[in-house]
């Protein structure tokens, strides 16, 4: 098979070995090249020659193929393909290395989670306790005394809230227990009537089967109870450690950024200080917004319970407020308690109404209010917030869902800061043209604000 190259002259002398082919299959010099059809102009380079050979327009043999309309390959195609393949291989290797690094970092963090969890919770407590501590320190209070007073007042408020709630629960728990027994009898009578028509013997059999099932799984239930008790004990221990760490954070926290900036260098110190300030602000916004969401939940659910004359309005509202800080499970438990109390005290109809109120408020809070508030405060899209909560709950359960939004916000802060640096901007420079600098001597270092070099040269 042979194709003529573009530009080949038909009247050129053929090689000696091709004389037979020239006489048998090559058209005459004055023969039309395209079977009589006009050949389009090629920009002054003469008419485009037709392809010949197997499948060509002048192939005298019966061809199995026709001439392709795709352009002929150039010598650069292979070289460009090798270049693209090399770039793809390098990019794939870099991606694999980064993925391996992320996996290693995640594994290390998982091993250190027992230590990291109290630290993270202590930082979140410190975001709440730092504003009053800073107020006292600005008015001449010693750092340790200001931190201790604020922490004690915080614990006193929590204890006072428990002291207000506990008597209400204790006063009504007996009455609620009696009403619960009455409610079970009403359910039994309801099942015995139409449309179910379940007799008392069948109900007794169901109860006996439930008791037998509990007895048969007593060991598993005991194991679950022990696991739950261990989890509660670990939670209390982490809470105590978090409060102790929060005391040291609000007492010595202002020394952290100067110390960290002093370990880096004059060029990196402004970036360390600016990024630390941005991350701290992000954590503070997270606590404020969660408190706002919890307050909205507690307010509207509490108003609904009060209108329906459901008992334990204040304890249920407080439980709803604190449940907002534990996504998914917290809202579910708080809502379940409200519905259960309404069922026991007011009956099925009121319980159904309370269930509708709780479901409506939580759906609005979870799907509308919380993503919008957190998205605006963190400059994250609502879809990113929802995906972060989903990923966090899948990876680390309740704690992961609780920490997923601030972690996503911190990642966004770091990403935007690095992006601005790569684009030649100066995110460490404030609006007044100053940035943070490290000053001091061998005795210690402090942070000061001074004109940025780029601003002073401008």
TrEMBL record:
Locations listed in the record: Cell membrane
Q: Which UniProt keywords apply?
A: Cell membrane, Membrane, Transmembrane, Transmembrane helix, Transport
Q: Name one Pfam family in it.
A: AI-2E_transport
- Provide the transmembrane region boundaries: 87-107, 113-131, 143-166, 231-250, 291-308, 314-340, 347-364, 384-415
Q: Report biased composition (Low complexity) as residue ranges.
A: 13-50
- Could you tell me which residues belong to the region Disordered? 1-76, 428-458
Q: Which domain of life is it from?
A: Bacteria
Q: How does it sit in the membrane?
A: Multi-pass membrane protein
Member of which family?
Belongs to the autoinducer-2 exporter (AI-2E) (TC 2.A.86) family.
Report the protein name in the record: AI-2E family transporter
Query: What lineage is this protein's organism placed in?
Result: Bacteria, Bacillati, Actinomycetota, Actinomycetes, Geodermatophilales
């Amino acid at each position: 098979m042979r194709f003529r190259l573009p530009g080949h002259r038909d009247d050129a002398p053929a090689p000696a070995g091709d004389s037979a082919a020239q006489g048998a299959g090559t058209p005459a010099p004055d023969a039309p090249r395209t079977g009589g059809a006009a050949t389009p102009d090629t920009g002054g380079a003469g008419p485009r020659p037709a392809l010949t050979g197997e499948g060509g327009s002048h192939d005298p043999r019966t061809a199995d193929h026709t001439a392709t309309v795709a352009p002929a390959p150039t010598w650069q195609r292979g070289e460009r393909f090798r270049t693209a393949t090399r770039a793809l291989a390098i990019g794939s290797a870099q991606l694999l290395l980064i993925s391996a690094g992320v996996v290693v970092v995640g594994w290390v963090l998982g091993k250190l989670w027992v230590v990291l969890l109290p630290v993270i919770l202590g930082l979140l407590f410190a975001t709440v306790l730092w504003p009053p501590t800073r107020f006292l320190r600005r008015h001449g209070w010693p750092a340790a005394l200001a931190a201790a007073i604020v922490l004690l007042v915080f614990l006193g408020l929590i204890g006072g809230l428990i002291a207000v709630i506990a008597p209400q629960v204790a006063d009504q728990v007996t009455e609620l227990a009696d009403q619960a027994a009455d409610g079970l009898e009403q359910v039994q009578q309801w099942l015995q009537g139409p449309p179910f028509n379940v007799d008392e013997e069948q109900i007794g059999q169901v109860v006996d089967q439930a008791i037998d099932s509990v007895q048969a799984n007593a060991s598993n239930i005991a194991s679950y109870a022990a696991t739950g008790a261990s989890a509660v004990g670990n939670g209390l221990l982490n809470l105590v450690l978090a409060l102790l760490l929060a005391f040291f954070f609000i007492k010595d926290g202002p020394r952290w950024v100067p110390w960290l900036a002093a370990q880096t260098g004059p060029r990196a110190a402004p970036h360390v200080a600016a990024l630390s300030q941005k991350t701290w602000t992000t954590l503070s916004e997270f606590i404020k917004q969660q408190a706002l969401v919890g307050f909205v939940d507690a307010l509207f659910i509490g108003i609904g319970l009060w209108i329906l004359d459901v008992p334990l309005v204040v304890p249920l509202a407080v439980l709803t407020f604190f449940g907002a800080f534990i996504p998914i499970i917290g809202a579910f438990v708080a809502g379940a308690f409200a519905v259960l109390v309404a069922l026991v005290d007011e009956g099925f109809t009121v319980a159904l109404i309370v269930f509708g109120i709780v479901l409506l408020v939580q759906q609005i809070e979870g799907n509308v209010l919380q993503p919008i508030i957190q998205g605006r405060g963190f400059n994250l899209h609502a879809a990113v917030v929802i995906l972060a909560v989903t990923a966090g709950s899948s990876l680390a359960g309740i704690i992961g869902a609780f920490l997923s939004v601030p972690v996503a916000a911190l990642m966004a802060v770091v990403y935007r800061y690095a992006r601005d640096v790569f684009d030649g901007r100066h995110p460490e420079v404030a609006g007044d043209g100053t940035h943070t600098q490290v000053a001091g001597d061998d005795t210690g270092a402090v942070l000061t604000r001074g004109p940025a070099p780029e601003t002073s040269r401008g």
